[in-house]
Write a structure and sequence with these properties.
Elements lengths: L37 H5 L12 H32 L2 H26 L4 H25 L3 H31 L4 H29 L2 H20 L16 H14 L1 H16 L3 H12 L4 H25 L4 H18 L5 H28 L6 H12 L3 H35 L3 H4 L6
């Protein structure tokens, strides 16, 4: 279960002038939850019930909701296009590796840059770049070019920009809404993101069957451009506090790693999140292969199942916004068991049962995502927000190529059904193993 999309598994140069930022407390002396300061609470001029009056929050919310709709279309149409071009599960796995490899290679420096640069500009530049690169795929299809080669060429740089965008976005949320608002804002962001995933996959499946998956991907390029336009309207710069004494980028990276390594609660939940992320990294490709090849049900059913997951995620996000679950560790453990169980329910069952299983998996996945991201953010000092998030993503997403490549190899070797069984079994086993760790069971948001 990742932070970037339904199951796969969840942005300028550095400033030259900096003022001194007090060094954070030693990592082994920091509390498990950091209380919001008065400055944090007053940063957006709104109490916890006034997110709806936070203009910049609403602009970012709408822009990223539109972008998420485009992502949901490409997430469905691109694997279908690769499968049509190659007929190979291994090729789908290679694209999955190129999608997540940037998290491993540049994830840590991206986080350090997010703690130096204007985070709004990081997001803006990344969206513009992604609009151009994404447009190359449908353009190649329209011109009859070597589309598979184009996909392989643009996938890596496209996801380098995704990593930069995520680093800027996750570090910007507290400055956008105030620390008191972070759990609720994360839940609202997740709910709006999932609106696009409700209709996107089903629409992508229908469009892929009519106008072709290449032309369908053009929609995503347009949504990136609209997202960039929205960010141009944001007034607050969302910059971190500047530093008078410049530090080397490697020293900044080490500081972020050291904080994560010495924060026991964060370390425990990150280990669980990383393990489940690797296991589910190739889940979308496996599901598409299973539905279209093993079951022969067609692209429309793929879209229907992914849309059901999105409806569940939307429902789960709304639930998380209202309840704001604080027992993060237990929510994540339930999520591993539930996702594993839902995987088994997808195997050999009628389409209505598959839809219900996907819906249930979406509900729990949204609660897991909101709980985990909120805990990670609130455990991070402001000066380390970008680096802590990047360190976590480098592990959870950066190691995902292992899962993507393994899933691709398994598809060609044992088929979609057996690969689905393997994923479900591993998730249940992981849930059982991590349930034995007290640090995971006790992980929770501060009251």
């Amino acid at each position: 279960m990742t932070a970037s999309s339904p199951p796969t598994a969840p942005p300028e140069g550095p400033p030259s002038d900096r003022t001194h930022v007090p060094a954070p407390a030693p990592v082994d002396q920091l509390p498990d939850a950091l209380p919001a300061s008065a400055a944090d609470r007053e940063a957006d001029g709104a109490p916890p019930t006034e997110l709806r009056r936070n203009r910049d929050f609403l602009i970012v919310l709408v822009g990223q909701g539109i972008s998420s709709f485009g992502d949901s279309i490409t997430n469905t149409a691109l694997p279908i296009l690769v499968l049509l071009l190659t007929g190979s599960g291994f090729a789908m796995g290679v694209v999955g590796v190129l999608t997540t490899l940037p998290d491993l290679i540049i994830g840590l420096p991206a986080g350090a840059f997010a703690d130096r640069w204007d985070r709004r500009k990081m997001m803006l530049g990344s969206d513009l770049g992604r609009a151009i690169l994404t447009a190359a795929v449908p353009l190649s299809v329209a011109l009859g070019g070597p589309t598979m080669a184009v996909i392989l060429l643009v996938t890596f740089p496209l996801n380098v920009l995704r990593v930069l965008w995520l680093a800027g976005y996750t570090a910007a949320v507290p400055g956008l809404v105030g620390r008191d608002q972070v759990p609720r804002a994360n839940a609202i962001f997740e709910a709006v993101f999932n609106i696009g995933w409700v209709v996107g996959p089903a629409l992508a499946g229908l469009l892929a069957a009519t106008i072709g998956p290449g032309a369908t991907i053009a929609i995503d390029a347009a949504t990136f451009a609209l997202s960039a336009l929205a960010l141009l309207l944001v007034r607050r710069p969302l910059r971190p506090e500047a530093r008078a004494e410049p530090t080397h980028i490697l020293a900044d990276v080490r500081e972020g790693i050291r904080f994560v390594a010495h924060q026991p609660t964060l370390r425990a939940v990150l280990a669980l999140w990383t393990t489940t992320s690797v296991i589910t990294a190739g889940f979308t490709a496996v599901l598409i292969y299973y539905v279209t090849i093993d079951r022969g049900l067609g692209e429309a059913v793929v879209g229907l199942v992914l849309s059901a997951f999105a409806v569940g995620s939307l429902s789960g996000s709304i639930l998380a916004a209202r309840l704001a679950p604080k027992a993060v560790g237990r929510v994540m453990l339930v999520g591993a068991f539930a996702f594993g169980g839902a995987t088994f329910l997808l195997i050999g069952t009628p389409v209505p049962v598959m839809v219900l299983a996907a819906f249930g998996a979406g509900v729990i996945n949204a609660n897991v995502l909101v709980a985990y991201i909120s805990l990670r953010t609130l455990l991070s000092p402001d000066a380390l927000l970008g680096r802590v998030g990047a360190t976590a993503r480098t592990l959870s997403v950066g190691l995902s190529p292992i899962g993507s490549l393994s899933a691709g190899l398994a598809l060609d070797a044992i088929g979609g059904t057996a690969t689905m069984v393997a994923i479900g079994t591993l998730l249940v086993l992981v849930g059982g193993i991590f349930a034995l760790r007290p640090a995971v069971r006790r992980a929770r948001l501060a009251a």
